[in-house]
Amino acid sequence: MKPVAYLAFNAKFTDKDREFLVTYFRLADTIADFIGPHCEVVIHSFESFEKSVVKIVNGHHTGRTVGSPITDLGLKILSLIEKTGEVTPKSYFTNSKEGSLLKSTTCVLAGENGKPVGLFCINMNLSHPFPEIIKTLMPDMAHSHVGVSENFSSSATDVIEQAINHAVLEIDGDASINLKGRNKAITKLLLKNGIFELKEATAMVSKHLGITRHAIYKYIREFKA
Q: What predicted TM-score, i.e. pTM, was given to this entire model?
């Protein structure tokens, strides 16, 4: 692979470069929320090494905030990339200035035309008691979102079939819905859950419920109206 001059480029950042980095801000929030409070996520911008941090979540683990500089290790990684052209992310262990053990990974963010514009870094603080870390990864039964159903399938047909089965169980378990309104209620729930975005959904739902596709379309028009 041809080496890329990561440290040599001095081109001024454009609005597109900045906009590109901003598109990763939500991903940083998502990863930090998924892994938990012991995970720090940082986005560095190459516009200024002295003030490279443009986004940070759970920065208390390293004491950094937006506007903090790139680390010496970050510069070392960039220097290595410049020499070898190797950009495959690799995990490594390091220590914060307070002595906390961190497991980290760093990914180079390439913007328009492959231009390197920043780093996406994840730091997991392993110095906390392991049971405390595991607790943040386990469901908290006190929160209502625990137990959300999600179908992990390799085919759209299987996703639709499982969604229909779940909808039928939910509607049939609702004593307030009579037999006459059953099919309409099931169709409404499936529409609410977005199942009709899948191409085969209408045919499969009509077959399962024993009604025509025209009836399904009629229900959907009524709901959308």
A: 0.70
